[in-house]
Amino acid sequence: MGLSFTTTFRGGQPLHPIFPSHTSIVGDSDSVVVPRESAVFPRGDVQVLSGRGHNSLLFDPESIALVVDRVRRVQRSETRAQP
User: Fold this and answer.
1) What DSSP line would sit under 15-80, residue for residue?
2) What is the pTM of this model?
3) Who contacts 57 (Cβ-Cβ below 8 Å, separation ≥6)?
4) DSSP state letter for 13
5) Is the C-alpha dihedral spanning 4, 9, 13, 16 positive or negative?
6) Predicted pLDDT of residue 7
7) Residues 20, 40 contacting (CB under 8 angstroms)
8) Quick one: pLDDT at residue 57?
9) CB 3.0 to 4.6 Å from 54: which of 32, 38, 70, 77, for a disulfide?
10) For 70, phi and psi rounded to 5 degrees?
11) Per-residue pLDDT of the chain (83 residues; tens, 9 = 90+)
């Protein structure tokens, strides 16, 4: 990804033309990242999962499903965009 990724990311432009540049997944029971608002990237989507703590997000089925869904949507859009 190199320079173009860094330049695009720092420039605030979406990394992909369809999706925002970042998705923040936040557990509302996180006691590691305080205040909770500091866990949210200033651009992109935010998903707050109720009853989840900091490390539990790594293994939480809903958190994983959000990541997998995001990756699949990007893959599908790239497949459609190819000639």
Assistant:
1) SSSSS-S-EEEEETT-SSSSSGGGGS-SSSEEEEETT--TTHHHH-HHHHHHHHHHHHHHHHHHHH
2) 0.66
3) 25, 27, 30, 49, 63
4) -
5) positive
6) 40
7) no
8) 96
9) 32
10) -60, -45
11) 343 443 444 455 555 555 556 789 999 999 999 888 888 888 888 999 999 999 999 999 999 999 999 888 878 877 776 66
Q: How far apart are CA 18 and CA 69, in angstroms?
A: 14
Placement of tokens 């695009």 in the chain: 8
DSSP state of 8: H
Helix (H/G/I), strand (E/B), else coil: 2: helix
Closest CA relative to residue 20, chosen from 9, 31, 34, 29: 9
